[in-house]
Structures are given as C-alpha cells and as structure tokens.
Amino acid sequence: xxxxxxxxxxxxxxxxxxxxxxxxxxxxxxxxxxxxxxxxxxxxxxxxxxxxxxxxxxxxxxxxxxxxxxxxxxxxxxxxxxxxxxxxxxxxxxxxxxxxxxxxxxxxxxxxxxxxxxxxxxxxxxxxxxxxxxxxxxxxxxxxxxxxxxxxxxxxxxxxxxxxxxxxxxxxxxxxxxxxxxxxxxxxxxxxxxxxxxxxxxxxxxxxxxxxxxxxxxxxxxxxxxxxxxxxxxxxxxxxxxxxxxxxxxxxxxxxxxxxxxxxxxxxxxxxxxxxxxxxxxxxxxxxxxxxxxxxxxxxxxxxxxxxxxxxxxxxxxxxxxxxxxxxxxxxxxxxxxxxxxxxxxxxxxxxxxxxxxxxxxxxxxxxxxxxxxxxxxxxxxxxxxxxxxxxxxxxxxxxxxxxxxxxxxxxxxxxxxxxxxxxxxxxxxxxxxxxxxxxxxxxxxxxxxxxxxxxxxxxxxxxxxxxxxxxxxxxxxxxxxxxxxxxxxxxxxxxxxxxxxxxxxxxxxxxxxxxxxxxxxxxxxxxxxxxxxxxxxxxxxxxxxxxxxxxxxxxxxxxxxxxxxxxxxxxxxxxxxxxxxxxxxxxxxxxxxxxxxxxxxxxxxxxxxxxxxxxxxxxxxxxxx
Length: 626
Prior knowledge:
The protein has 626 residues and is of the alpha+beta class. The chain is built from 24 helices and 15 strands. The chain folds into four domains: 39-205, no CATH class; 268-404, no CATH class; 426-532, CATH 2.40.50.140; 540-617, no CATH class.
C-alpha cells in the first residue's frame, strides 16, 4: 500500500493532553476523557497506513464515527475507491454529492484510479492540473486554474464563471466562453480544442467542490480513522460520550455500543463501584457512562463518583444509600440503577434491592440527619475495619430474582438495550437456521432483493398515509434487529392490516420482505410477519446430514436414527456421504425418518456427527452446498 499522505512528510497532530492515567482527545466532535494508561499519541504520522485504510474500506460498518464518512453511501464509495493516498480521501469528500454521483464523475474517478479506464487530456496543461484526479475536474480550484492559465481569465472572474455555470446563467457563461477561447488561441491552442475544453468545463464545473474544505474534512477523517484503528477503545468511549446526553440520539448510542463489541472492545455494564459519569476505558475495556442511564442525569452520576472517591468503594447497598446526597440521587434514580444492574457487583439480587430500597432510603435519611445534629452512630467506629451498618446483608430479604423476561424488560427500560442477556439469544439458532440472511448481510444486497429475516421489532411507530388505499391509511415504521445489526423497516397499509396483531415492541418474529435502497441507509419493506413457530414450519423443507464414511461408524448412524425418531414429522432427511476419495453420494432417508424441524434438537445430532454436519435445507431435493 502506498503512503496515504502522498508526498506529505507528516500530518498535523490532533491536540491531546497526557496526564497521569488519563488521555484527553480533542477531536472534531469535542473534548473527551478516557481513563486508562495509554501511550501518548504524539504526532499522528503515516507509519502505518494499512490499519487506517482498513478502517475506511472494510465492510461491517467500521467507518462509523469517522468524520464525514459515516453514512452508508460514502462507506460504499470508500469500498469502491480503496483509498491509498490522502488525495483519494479529499476527492471522496468532494465527489460524494448528488451532482458528481449522478454525472458520472465518481465512476470515472474510480475506474481510472484502478486502471479500468485511461484518462485523456486535450492539452498538456490539463494533465498538469488534473492528473491528481485522473483527468476528472473534481475541485473548483482546478477549474479556476484551467480558466486562468489556459484562457487568461482572472481568478475572480473564473470563480464567477463557475458560479454562473452552477446556476445556469447563460449570458455570463457565453461571455466567459468567448474570453476563454480568445485567450486560449493567444496561447497557441487551436479553436476546436479550446471549444472542447470549455465544454468539459461546463460539464463538470457546476459540480466542483472547494478543495480546501474537502482537504480539511479529509484530514480530520484520517485523524479520527487513525484513532479508531490504533486506540479503538478510547475512540469508541469518546464517541459514546458524545451522544450521552442527547435523548434524540439514544438509538445512535446503542448502535455505537454494538459497533464497539463487533470491533472486539468489551463494553462493561453499569457499575456504581467502577463507572464514572462519562464512558471511560480501563484495561482495554469500556466502562459504562452512568449519565447514559435513562432518568439518572449527570448530577446524580457525579454525586456517585464524589461519594466513591471520598471514602472508597461502597460496602453494600445500604452503605451506598447512606453516603450519597438524596437531593442529587433520589429514590427514582436508585430504582434506575437497580434496573440497569449497576449494583450487581455487590452480590445482591435486583429483586432484593428493589424490595429494600424504601427501608434503605429511610435508614440513610435518619443516619444523615443524626450526623447533621452531631449524634454519632454506634457502629461508625467499625468503619475503618471494613465493617458496615447492621442493616447490610441481613437487611435483604430472601426473595427470588425477577424472571429473566422481567429482568431484561427493566434493563431495556433503563438503558435502551440489554446487558445480562438478550431475548434473541434464546432464538439465535432458530433465526440463523431459517433466515436467508443476517441483517448485516442485507445492507450489501441490491434493491428489491427478496429476503426472509428473523429478529426483534423495536422503535415501532404507527403513522397514517395522506391518501387511503382500499380504505386503509394506517401503516407502521419500525426497526428489526438481530445479533448482527439493526435495519429500518416499513409495512404499508394493506399488509399491516393483515398482520397488525403480530406487530408489537420487542416482539421476536420472522418477516418476508424486499430490500429498499431509496436512502443512504438501506431498509426493508415488509410484506408478511410470522411468529417463530410459523416461520420454522414454513421455511424448512429438508434436513441434510453430512457424513464421512471414514469417520462415522454404524453405531453413530444408529444413534442418529434414534434422535430422528424422537422428532417425527413431514420433512424429509437427506444423507450426503463422502467416501475416502472425497467423492460425494447423495441419498434420501426412508419416510419413517421424516422429522419435525420445530422439535428436532440440532445439538443432539451435532454431538454425534460433529459441528457443521447438520444443515436445514430449504430445497425440496435436499441439495445443500455439496
């Protein structure tokens, strides 16, 4: 890979301060602190271009959070562009606009960069000015230089000419054309070539972008990509903190958390013992920002940190209640902390803490009152020895934890995402088995591609069309999420009317849909909704068992038969057998071994045959990949 900075010796630094255990990034989107012992960034140079380029062009959303390069459309352009020089990043910022995209400039740049087209130049000066963009007039400055140096037009008039072309002011354009052709002929250019060059200027000048702006954007894009490539945890913590107090960007923050996890950075759940108001980093892991807990607030988060810094970690739930200022952290805020799992590290069940909250607050208020009036607590003398008030562990009643579904519901209520588990985890194997694609894969599919997807419906919004169709106006917009990604969905009135009983917040479903690519972010148009059982029954048409005659013995096949007999149904079973020479033989098992895919336990078969040797086919002849 070439030097991403071309001929530049070094790149201007991102401002930063390095303190004991703290690095402060001052990036284009603000100033954020991330707690950890991180090597000083120094000057962001170009010693490792591969990591940065990969961040910019990889699939899977790695360019999210990169300045000016976050949208799906520009990330697709980066994948096509495969930038290996800062000039490509500058050009990307200039080209990703409706005019260049629709006018063929983007295709010309990409094809010429990768050798699929050869740039042509009507005059040596054009090659001098346009070679960095492969003969495409990308920047206003390029057009101005051609008008000035080839046509003798003053730079101020050249700029006015560009504006006239973009606004289609024909009178000014005609005047400048005469000036240009005359000036070009005086400089030895024949009349036809001068006409051709001005026609080229008219074709591209209206789309030209200011290079100085684009260069500044590209530099910030490179710098943020550098940080994401080399300081991933710190970068993602800063990115999360940038959205922490904007209630309108909760979904974006949740997406950033999912992105961090996909990049291999663990985002730890809220914890009153370790977390600070903002997202921070410790030992390569992101500590959750307490301010991001809904209904808590920055003041409460700062008060928790203050109390912890003053006297150390909280000994138990009652100690927490006693040490914090209830004006800053009221009962409702503590309820949110419990629901978010922020007290899990003290070893108590969330149900116990919620039951004890009233008593804890009352006892804490009394203790704080006593201290204000100079009345000591009999047990305060034991504090230095690590003791706590007698209302601690024995003050928690022995009650069962909330049911898993209720626990997850409260987590979602407090955080907008799940911490301890995910409702989809229970259905992950089924969704993987019966869906045609993951949601991450859908984003790379063409428009109108038919898909069958599984996931959870969230952010359900009911709307009405301006014009009724068949008397129906109500339709729904929502998001569908699986364990790989989240995608925007719409279901129009006629289809919504048929399936409205299956549309609900946090419901896990299968959907039959088509891919929609009318916006930067691809989405899907849902035609049908099925519950999990309906989806499983509809999709499976055959079970394929992959056998190796050298590896699998008769006793194993007998064990397979017993598993199949426990799940009798109507779906046929196919045996794909590989012999010692590597040849495959395909057989259909007898009808007595037909199965019900909804009751068959795939893991039982894989325990016998080995991982990856059990496939649910959607083809009637059982043909899989072999």
